[in-house]
Amino acid sequence: MDSQSQTHHHELDFVMGTTNRIPRLVSAEGFPELKYRIEKYIQMKDFKIWRSIIKDPSRITTIVAGQVIDKKIENYTDEDFEKVEEQEKALATLTMALSPNITQGFREYTSAKDLWEALIKVYERNEDMKDSCQDMLRQRFNMFNYVPGETLEAQLQRFTSLNTEMTVAGIFYTKSEINKKLLNTL
Q1: What Cα–Cα distance (Å) separates residue 81 from each residue in 38, 54, 72, 75, 146?
Q2: What is the pTM of this model?
Q3: Whether residues 65 and 113 fall in one domain
Q4: What total of structural domains would you count in the chain?
Q5: What is the rounded distance in angstroms from the CA atom of residue 43 to the CA atom of residue 32?
Q6: Which end of the chain is more exposed for a tag (fewer CB within 10 A), N or C?
Q7: Which pLDDT tens digit goes with each residue over 78-105?
Q8: What does the alpha-carbon distance between residue 183 and residue 62 come to, in Å, rounded to a whole number?
């Protein structure tokens, strides 16, 4: 494998993740795929972390004079620390899935659930945005062509990526249409 191919594979692993590396959100366009991948990645690593993302964070409380109050950290039990640790792991995991330029816009969120909901609110498209995205992807598909100097492998990778983006966006072409488009660009 040449150095250009190795660099491309490293960049793809960085964005898509591996069993040992969390997928990363590097642009708004990548959110639909990240949403799917991050859920599967976290469930594979530790389902309790995923549970912390979808549940409200637990407050560590105690009862004093008949009132529920936040427990002082020096009075935490091992079970209390485990709850806090699980919640912090969930927040850290989601934070690590964001590129630094995206993380900066979400530093105010102190729970994994709040961060996850904010990401969905910001990056999931409303119907108008979905339609615009689909139009753009159809246009990219229709205009897909050979780039001078591009290797066949790179062209196929670019075409496969475009088809994956279209599928995630809800655009489906027949195998015949896809094959015809690819053959016409070769």
Answers
A1: 25, 19, 12, 10, 56
A2: 0.61
A3: yes
A4: 2
A5: 17
A6: N
A7: 999 999 999 999 999 999 999 888 888 8
A8: 68
Q: At what angle do helices 31-45 and 47-54 cross, to 10 degrees?
A: 130
**C-alpha closest to that of 37 among 87, 94, 90:** 94
Which are the contacts of 44, defined by CB distance < 8 A and separation ≥ 6?
19
Boundary of a domain, candidates 93, 123, 153: 123
Note the residue count of the chain: 186
| Claim to verify: residue 114 and residue 52 sit in the same structural domain | yes
Reported as a pLDDT band with limits 50, 70 and 90, residue 72 is very high
DSSP string, 113-181: HHHHHHHHHHHS--HHHHHHHHHHHHHHHHH--PPTT--HHHHHHHHHHHHHHHHHTT----HHHHHHH
